[in-house]
Amino acid sequence: MLVTKIMRIAFITLGCKLNYAETSTYERELLKEGFEAVQWNKGADVFLVNTCTVTEHSDKKSRNIIRKLHRQNPDAKIFVTGCSAQLRRADYEAIEGVERVFGATEKSQVVPSIKEKTMGTAGCGQDLGTFFPAYSSGERTRSFLKVQDGCDYKCHYCTVPYARGESRNIPIAEIIPQAEAIAAEGIKEIVLTGVNTGDFGKSTGESFYDLIKQLNDVDGIERYRISSIEPNLLTEEMIDWITSGTKFLPHYHIPLQSGCDTILKEMGRRYDTAAFAHKIQYIREKTEKAGGPKVFFGIDVIVGFPGETDELFMETYNFLKDVVRPAFIHIFPYSRRAGTPAAERKDQVQDSVKTKRVQMLEELCEKLHNEFVESNKGVAEKVLFESTDRKGMMEGYTGNYIRISQPFDPELIGKIVDITI
Ligand code: SF4
To answer: Considering the entire predicted model, what is its pTM?
Structure first.
């Protein structure tokens, strides 16, 4: 009798939600093929590392992890994919233990190739073109659904368009069944993810607005969040619809990057601070005036872009403090990425200055976040509780993304519960 060894595989993901959604999809497929998933430190036969290139640090971390995996598991086969692997294929291929590197257009080959190179059998390897559909399903209450990939914007600091290619998506008609599959798993909340999510539809003649309207009708999914959307692509028409009583929550993650018009222009961004402020105010008015909850804004900011003087940085600081007043600031120190226009500039900002600015924004963020939570005290809200037992406690989020913690009760997992903040 031929006994086939069960292959133990571990997955390591760095970077963004899109990477997590993609890894989760590889995992589901490979488990169906007979692999056993183990934690990375439990001695696997195979590793799949999904790398990230968003900063120089991410590249380095991705490579170091692979070296460490090889040191600890010299016989294991290591497969590498993701944005850093796309941009620096040769660096990864040169690392000992690496069996194969998959670029951005080879994502549909990950599962069949791993199967072939470890079990000696080729999978059927459905060719899905250059869009690799994905959704995460590790957490039982919330799933990240990839709806779009790539970006055509070419902001002057960013390598993501080179790593992930042109903006593209699969048609709405193929995304809806994925949302239905997520609902069939009992998951109630979907977070729509993409590289430039709002650009959805470019390759299929549809629009992001068409997509969200159709997703809203999927039975079983009760809440939607949009993981990140460019301010110029979040239209007033969409905001009017979202606030008219849909499943889309009062939680907006919007990249600002700088609150200074000079820097925004030099970054190659497609809006100015006046347009950004108008959009924020419009969302707030539409949501809160109708007696609705306070809106959670998560805002991305890059500090230390070349040419950002103390004065220009203070424009950003004050714009956030006085005008936007977000509930959270995602702060990124500018990272010089080879091949981008910003990397060529001579007026780079010193690391020590960036660190100081990051600290200032962290303090501002903490203050604004506390004020946001405080301003919601006593308000009735709905919380979707998650499954993780955190030392006897469980956590969940309100519609406007306030984290609520209470004693662990397995009955509440995946349930939407009325609470008072
Ligand atoms: S919109 Fe700009 S920052 Fe975002 S992925 Fe595209 S180029 Fe990069």
So the answer is: 0.84
Give residue 270's domain range.
142-373
pLDDT band at 115, cuts 50/70/90?
confident
Is it the case that residue 120 has pLDDT exceeding 70?
no
Residue whose C-alpha is closest to residue 360's, from 322, 321, 306, 309: 321
393 & 253 share domain = no
At residue 230, what is the residue type?
E
CB 192 within 8 A of CB 221: no
Q: Which residues pair with 146 in a beta bridge?
A: 193
Same domain, residue pair 363 and 399: no
Summarize the confidence of residues 11-26 as an average pLDDT. 92
User: Is the minimum distance from the CB of 158 to ligand 1 under 6 angstroms?
Assistant: yes
Q: Are residues 214 and 333 in the same domain?
A: yes
Token digits of residue 283: 């969302």
Ligand 1 binding pocket includes 303 (Cβ within 6 Å) = no
Tens digits of per-residue pLDDT, 353-367? Answer: 999 999 999 999 999
Beta strands of 69-196 (E only): which ranges?
77-82, 98-101, 142-146, 189-193
Q: What is the largest CA-CA distance in the chain?
A: 75
**Pair type for strands 142-146 and 189-193:** parallel
Pairing of strands 380-385, 393-398: antiparallel
Same-domain check for residues 211 and 304 = yes
For ligand 1, is residue 342 a contact (CB within 6 Å)?
A: no
